[in-house]
Design brief:
The complex is a heteropentamer of chains A (about 100), B (about 80), C (about 500), D (about 130) and E (about 140). Chain B contains three helices and no strands. Chain B has helices at about 1-20, 25-45, 50-75. Chain C starts with a helix and ends with a helix. Classes of the chains: A mainly alpha (about 100), B mainly alpha (about 80), C mainly alpha (about 500), D mainly alpha (about 130), E mainly alpha (about 140).
């Protein structure tokens, strides 16, 4: 019963969202609102400003390099976090072995 | 191209539902891997090779290995 | 040079987190002292920044010297600097306390990792406040969520794992919802910079209302989950009550507030007052806040574990802040800001004093607090001050924030909210007063009624006294802080 | 424009939305912890698909500048960058939750949310 | 796994996977790919090594200390490259303005600090994934 209710809820959510989506900018062309002067600038100037012909690489490591720094820190944090849960201290391991 | 796009989307939705319905977690991981690979194919069709490459390596490769490693250490079947 | 300070602050925290592993072999006090030094440096530079911003006005910091439409930009205004100063000062106090009592449940081998996570947590919080970019906020939010969860699970108890798991799942749902909102806004504006997005939203409101409506829904829900606003609060009591005491203080006093600050930023700087009023967000927020204030207190009354009780009390107090936001007036915003300050101080004092009791006496059950005021007078005295603040007794910060909220409600013409405020104050009294009464008035069979200062490390006592003093001092002289907060509220629009 | 045309135009967006809702359903209703993490992964890829669909341009080419062909129409590069960051973040969260699952299995003997809830309520009653 | 075929094929194939990973990392600014994809490839090649030859042998090759240095080293490389920008132009993470050579667009030696940052990311990602895999399949003793 509860599962049916959840299913109904999520189907309803999907229908509402789809109805909203139908009113959004449609087929992707160069006229779409997201394709604006920023994009043009990236595509036209990146070779002069960064010297990289792959614009994705240029944005990743130059224009928005701070995001990438944050993302390497996410990786670093995940290592520390996983180690803080899973690594076993020396003494405890020995005690476990004795038992 | 549009037809292929639609087919892949339908396939993705079916895969996602299959992941949800499968009781065997190992099969679910394999389906998830197929789902991710299909997603990277879709991204290739949508002209984003950078993302497709990364998703194929990280999403389909590393994530699934980690999932399998954990399922091997815990339970295989969902109750 | 002063304009470099924001990035230097961030890098100091990051660098501190990165060099802790190098000190593994040395004695641990070296690491903690170095960390304290870094915290004080950042504190001083935050004060310098605040002075600079007040005298010379806000400024932007463009990373990589790129224009705001191309790169990432930090915005240093009164809002971001004031709250970063608040975060750093509160964390310094909690940090000093934690050098005496990080031990509560954290294994000795894990100290290094605990402090790494703490400094990355600070890095993420400062980054969130400084940044002027929606996607950058998302990245920092993910760093923040992964660090907060791991300083809960680092205690390695059974219940910590399940609490952390529930927290991480809901957190991730929240983050992805927020990211979806960013995608929807990017779709119609083509920018991720907050100011450019805001311009795009204002001009796109007539063209693509569906996008903006859906984006508001996703973003407010996503951050609402992370900030534990009422219907999404289910993770909070477990998570905050199982964490080590100093972590609970940080989580409850600071981290939740950061999410609320993101919410304020998004509602007021991205969408603007006109749009959020057009889609009735203020009404929704007011209703949710009122229900949360009442229900959080009712849940808190039913608890016997004192830290769980404090967790539920946080849910109720977040309701106060959301109520201030929901009034969408300068007064309401100012009152919400003031309550962020006062709740931060009071909750930190409560969690730390309870932590001292747990450290010294190993009791967590409310019913065992009989006569404890005579064995631990300092801790229970600070607890009482903070609890009175929560109830809203005059001379404390809690009274001033309630007064401000009431005045803002009168100004907005919502008399019902004043009734809610008063009822919620009574409910707060219902669960805080019994603890104080049993601590100071009831007899304990085993112990005599002789008052003597408890034997806990000085590094734990001094922060408690400082917090208690601050609660009363700001309660007596709120004028300076209020004018600063008004400037912060003005800098948002 | 007929309904079908509009549907075809928005097919990627709708697919992303459907996947998001399916992932959310998995996270909310399932009690198996590993299944919930899979739900998070599905939600993540759904959001990324949405970003990719925004950046796509029909008939465009990947944004690797070809200086010999100045007339080429390139797709929008910014969404790709945002996703690259997002993918790694989701993987980190996945790994952390998986390590939590290992510990939960060791301490509770099960990875089923409902059984864990039953156990903790029994603990509290005692 | 003691199958001789798997072992010899793995020995044969791993250098090529790693070479391809390095290629992807170094060509991040001229072709699709970059630090994430290449780093993940190198990481997966090490995971393959672990799966075939066992965790003990894998740890000998890629010990805990090496991975620790690699993890911090990746971020430190990134931050120190950014600090050059602060010193020279007064802005964090500046590329061409900070005096990095722009090179000849389209060749490997171009893009100023972009390849260097990609190398940092690649080291970080590869070491992260192999460390996480090791930690997940076996509890490590500190």
């Amino acid at each position: 019963m509860r599962k049916r209710l959840y299913l109904l809820l999520f189907v309803g959510l999907f229908l509402v969202l789809s109805y909203n989506i139908m009113q959004m900018p449609g087929k992707s062309t160069v006229d779409a609102p997201a394709y604006n002067d920023t994009t043009e600038h990236y595509l036209n100037e990146s070779i002069e400003e960064t010297g990289a012909i792959n614009v994705v690489g240029a944005i990743l490591a130059d224009y928005r390099a701070f995001d990438t720094l944050g993302e390497t820190i996410v990786l670093f944090t995940s290592i520390v976090a996983v180690a803080s849960i899973l690594k076993v201290a020396d003494q405890k391991k020995k005690e476990d072995d004795h038992e | 191209m549009v037809l292929l796009n639609v087919i892949i989307i339908v396939f993705l939705i079916l895969c996602a539902i299959a992941v949800e319905k499968t009781k065997d977690l190992l099969s679910a991981v394999v389906i998830l891997s197929a789902y991710t690979l299909m997603m990277s194919v879709l991204w290739l069709i949508l002209h984003t090779p950078d993302v497709a490459l990364t998703e194929a390596a990280i999403g389909a490769g590393v994530t699934c290995i980690l999932f399998i490693a954990v399922i091997m250490r815990t339970e295989r079947y969902e109750r | 040079m002063i304009t470099q300070l924001p990035i230097i602050n961030l890098l100091l925290f990051l660098g501190m987190a990165l060099i802790i592993p190098l000190f593994k072999k040395r004695s641990f006090s070296l690491t903690t002292n170095l960390g304290l030094g870094v915290l004080f440096l950042v504190w001083i530079s935050s004060i310098v920044l605040l002075y600079h911003v007040i005298t010379e006005g806000a400024f932007y910091y463009q990373l990589g010297n790129y224009d705001r439409m191309l790169g990432i930009e930090l915005l240093i205004n009164t809002f971001s600097v004031l709250f970063s100063l608040f975060i750093v000062s509160l964390v310094i106090i909690i940090y000093i306390y934690s050098t005496g009592d990080a031990t509560e449940g954290v294994a000795e081998k894990e100290y290094g990792r605990y402090y790494i996570l703490l400094f990355i947590l600070l890095f993420a919080m400062l980054g969130i406040l400084y940044t002027n970019d929606l996607f950058n906020t998302y990245v920092f939010m993910e760093i923040l969520s992964i660090t907060t969860v791991s300083i809960i699970s680092i205690k390695r108890k059974k219940e910590n794992y399940t609490a952390a798991f529930r927290y991480v799942m809901l957190n991730e749902v929240g983050s992805l919802s927020y990211l979806f909102g960013v995608a929807l806004l990017y779709m119609i504006t083509g920018y991720t910079n907050i100011e450019l997005v805001s311009e795009g939203v204002q001009s796109g409101w007539s063209l693509y209302p569906a996008n903006i409506l859906t984006a508001i829904g996703f973003m407010v829900t996503g951050i609402g989950i992370k900030a534990a606003i009422f219907p999404f609060h289910i993770w909070l009591p477990d998570a905050h009550s199982t964490a080590p005491s100093s972590s609970s203080a940080i989580l409850s006093a600071v981290v939740v507030k950061v999410y609320i600050l993101i919410m304020i930023k998004i509602l007021f700087r991205v969408f603007g007052i006109d749009i959020i009023q057009a889609v009735h967000i203020p009404t929704v927020l007011l209703v949710i806040a009122s229900i949360g204030m009442i229900m959080g207190s009712i849940f808190a009354i039913a608890q016997t574990d004192v830290k769980r009780m404090l967790g539920y009390s946080s849910v109720a107090q977040i309701g106060y802040i959301v109520m201030g936001i929901g009034m969408v007036s300068m007064l309401g915003l100012q009152a919400a800001f003031f309550h962020i300050f006062s709740h931060g101080l009071m909750k930190a004092a409560l969690f730390l004093s309870v932590g001292a009791v747990i450290y010294h006496k190993k009791i967590r059950n409310v019913n065992e607090f009989d006569g404890i005021g005579f064995q631990m007078p300092v801790a229970m005295f600070v607890f009482s001050i903070a609890a009175l603040g929560m109830i809203g007794v005059p001379l404390t910060t809690g009274f001033i924030s309630k007064l401000n909220l009431g005045l803002a409600a009168l100004d907005a013409g919502q008399v019902v909210l004043i009734v809610v405020l008063i009822v919620s104050g009574f409910l707060n009294a219902l669960y805080y007063l019994p603890i104080m009464i049993s601590a100071f008035l009831k007899d304990n069979k085993d112990q005599q009624r002789v008052m003597r200062v408890e034997k806990i490390p000085k590094t734990m006592l001094v922060p408690l006294v400082v917090l208690g003093g601050l609660i009363i001092a700001i309660g007596l002289f709120p004028g300076e802080l209020l004018s600063l907060l008004e400037a912060a509220a003005l800098s948002l629009t | 424009m007929s309904f079908l045309d509009a549907l075809i135009d928005h097919i990627n967006y709708i697919g992303a939305m459907a996947l998001f809702v399916i992932g959310l359903h998995t996270v909310v209703t399932h009690s198996n912890l590993i299944k919930r993490i899979m739900g998070i992964n599905i939600m993540g890829t759904a959001v990324f698909l949405f970003f990719v669909a925004i950046g796509n341009v029909t008939g465009g080419v990947p944004p690797i500048i070809d200086q010999t062909n100045p007339d080429a129409v390139y797709i929008n590069p910014l969404p790709s960058v945002l996703i690259l960051t997002g993918i790694v973040v989701v993987v980190s969260i996945t790994v952390y939750s998986l390590s939590l699952v290992i510990r939960i299995y060791e301490t509770h003997g099960t990875i089923d949310q409902e059984e864990i809830a039953k156990m903790t309520s029994e603990d509290r009653d005692q | 796994m003691n199958d001789i075929i798997i072992k010899s094929i793995t020995r044969l194939i791993i250098p090529f996977i790693q070479l391809y990973g390095v290629y992807i990392i170094l060509h991040g600014h001229v072709s699709p790919g970059g630090g994430f994809a290449g780093g993940a490839m190198i990481g997966t090649s090490l995971v393959l090594y672990t799966l075939v030859f066992g965790i003990d042998k894998s740890k000998q090759k890629f010990s805990h200390r090496v991975s620790e240095y690699a993890e911090s080293g990746g971020i430190l490389l990134y931050v120190s490259l950014g600090l050059i920008g602060i010193v020279i132009t007064g802005s964090f993470l500046t590329n061409i303005e900070a005096g990095f050579p722009i090179g000849n667009p389209g060749s490997v030696l171009s893009g100023g600090m972009i390849p260097l940052l990609m190398v940092g990311i690649g080291i970080k990602v590869a070491s992260t994934f192999i460390t996480l895999f090791h930690t997940l399949i076996e509890e490590e003793v500190v």
